[in-house]
Design goal:
- The structure holds two protein chains of two kinds.
- Chain A has one domain: Orthogonal Bundle (ABC transporter involved in vitamin B12 uptake, BtuC), CATH 1.10.3470.
- Chain A is built from 14 helices and no strands.
- By secondary structure, chain A is mainly alpha-helical.
- The C terminus of chain A is likely disordered.
- Helix content of chain B is about 30%, strand content about 25%.
- In chain B, the strands form three sheets. Chain B has a six-stranded mixed β-sheet, sandwiched between helices. In chain B, strands 2-1-4 form a three-stranded antiparallel β-sheet, with helices on one face. A two-stranded antiparallel sheet of chain B has the order 10-11.
- Chain B is globular, with a radius of gyration of 19 Å.
- The chains are: A mainly alpha, B alpha/beta.
- The interface between A and B is large, with 46 and 44 residues.
Chain lengths: ~290, ~250
């Protein structure tokens, strides 16, 4: 029992537990849209892009959230623009723009030694120094994100499932896409401290994949993915404290254990459900109408 | 003749610096229209449908759409993500904009969706995943989604593509019924013979309009050769034209 209560004696651990749990739920919620839209690599790319912005802010002494937020959003919009114009493919666009931003951050950190020591914490996540301000930030971002998703639920669902028909039906698809990109950037920014740049993409994808293996309903997938994200965030944070390793790593590994357990239970059915994720647009039906006639 | 719902005059279009995909197309869609647009792959059928929908602004010509026109659109089943986690009811309801800031459907909205499903003969399937349906039922779900917006003009992209004969008959009979109830219908297709039996008007397209009118007037060997670039024979049975490949002819 002491194993459970001992960490709660420290304020930073209490703060980190709240941040990890809420960040896990938020990433789980947004991860549903990310995976169903075939954008998993965007989560990975955005966090790397934001790292470049964060390093620049640290080097020139600008507020981290403002600078890194603008940098991340600009990178996201640049990726979208390059992809829409079909200059290069989406994956290649993300690879070029966001890893260049990440490399820029590494170079800056090399020049400015005063921010060098925080590189490991930024890359893999750390619970040290999680303040009550961080708690308020993640709570505020989560409440705001849930409100935006609730208010735009059908438009988000329609544009995720069928953007072309949604546009014809009167949904402002470009606006909804930009809104989702904004939510994603803000969520990554507010979760980056505990989840880490390199592991945040997994926190976005894993809960949604596990939820998809468990259900065929979009609404249930949203609830399940958020709950799985929160549970893995909470458990991973406890493990991080006791094992004295980076919080991002333990959270993602906890998520992987949940994935393995659900896979063992659901077997081929779960795998078949999750198989279509990230292959959304233009994918062929797995049951063709010809075969399906009864 | 009633006021046109959509009218195209001298419409032409090309994507970027590519070859024209549409050239000098004139088309009038009225409230009484039930039109099949036929043509080979790359003939501009889908682009023409997109121009009618307002998704593509043509590079040349004029498009006049009646003010406040309500359009319904049914995409090709091949582009639908059948693995997406949605039930039939969720799919149909996503076309209805939420009137209040809450995600779930109201009792009235659910009743409206159920009524459309019942009208299309798929009542009771609302809780099923879209993948679990037959080909005909899947088409009906997407027609139901379009009908929930109470359209005056329904546009369908290749509704008979990749389906078997029974499903094709189901879908075309359903469209005939909807047309009899006052809905204007425009669809694109590769399937010449299925259309001749069900549609009063056809438009043969190969970048430009090759012929338009009743099936017997449009499905003629000279028109088909111009449209498809291959010689074809046309037989007549029970007053309907049937297109067959000309045997022993090699297409250059």
């Amino acid at each position: 029992m002491n194993w459970l209560t001992e960490p709660l004696g420290f304020e930073f651990v209490r703060n980190a537990l709240v941040v990890c749990t809420v960040a896990g739920a938020l990433c789980g919620l947004l991860g549903v849209f990310v995976t169903l839209r075939g954008m998993s690599y965007i989560g990975h790319g955005l966090s790397h892009a934001i790292f470049g912005g964060a390093a620049l802010c640290a080097a020139i002494g600008v507020n981290f959230f403002v600078g890194a937020g603008i940098w991340g959003l600009a990178s996201g919009l640049a990726v979208g623009r390059v992809t829409r114009r079909r200059i290069i493919g989406a994956d290649a666009a993300i690879g070029v723009i966001t890893t260049a931003s990440f490399a820029f951050g590494i170079v800056l950190l090399g020049f400015y030694t005063r921010v060098k020591q925080s590189i490991e914490a930024t890359v893999f996540g750390s619970v040290l120094g999680v303040s009550s301000g961080d708690v308020l930030l993640i709570l505020g971002v989560t409440v705001g994100s849930v409100a935006v998703i609730v208010a735009n639920y059908r438009s988000l669902l329609f544009t995720t499932f069928d953007p072309e028909v949604a546009e014809v039906t009167g949904v402002k698809v470009a606006r909804i896409d930009a809104l989702l990109m904004l939510l994603l950037s803000v969520a990554i920014l507010s979760s980056m401290k505990v989840l880490g740049v390199t592991l945040i993409a997994a926190a976005l994808v894993l809960p949604a994949v596990v939820a998809r293996m468990l259900t065929d309903s979009f609404t249930r997938m949203l609830w399940l993915s958020s709950a799985i994200g929160a549970t893995t965030g909470f458990t991973g944070m406890f493990l991080s404290y006791h094992l004295d390793v980076a919080s991002g790593a333990t959270i993602v590994l906890t998520g992987f254990v949940v994935f393995a357990v659900v896979f063992a239970i659901t077997g081929r059915r779960g795998l078949r459900r999750a198989a279509g994720l990230d292959d959304h647009h233009g994918s062929a039906p797995d049951v063709t109408p010809l075969r399906a006639v009864r | 003749m009633s006021e046109p719902l959509v009218e195209l005059r001298h419409v032409g279009h090309r994507y970027g610096n590519g070859a024209p995909v549409l050239r000098d197309v004139d088309l009038r869609i009225g409230g009484e229209s039930m039109l099949g647009i036929v043509g080979p792959s790359g003939s501009g059928k889908t682009t023409l449908l997109r121009v009618l929908l307002g998704m593509v602004r043509p590079g040349h010509g004029h498009v006049e759409r009646r003010e406040g026109l309500r359009l319904g659109y049914v995409p090709q089943v091949e582009v639908v993500d059948w693995n997406f986690p949605v039930t039939v009811l969720e799919t149909v309801l996503m076309a209805r904009p939420a009137r209040r800031l809450r995600p779930w459907a109201t009792t009235v909205e659910k009743a409206e969706a159920e009524a459309v499903l019942e009208r299309l003969g798929i009542a009771g399937l609302g809780r099923r995943h879209i993948r679990e349906l037959s080909g005909g039922q899947q088409q009906r779900v997407f027609i139901a989604r379009a009908l929930l917006g109470q359209p005056e003009l329904l546009l369908l992209d290749e509704p008979t593509s990749g389906v078997d004969v029974r499903t094709r008959h189901e879908v075309l009979h359903l469209l005939e019924e909807l047309h009899r109830d006052g809905l204007a219908v425009v669809l694109t297709t590769h399937d010449l013979n299925g259309m001749a039996a069900h549609l009063p008007e056809l438009l043969c397209l190969n970048v430009s309009v090759q012929a338009a009118g009743p099936p017997l007037a449009v499905l003629r060997p000279d028109v088909l050769e111009r449209t498809y670039g291959a010689p074809m024979d046309v037989l007549e049975h029970a007053g309907l034209p049937f297109v067959v490949d000309r045997p022993g002819v090699r297409v250059s």
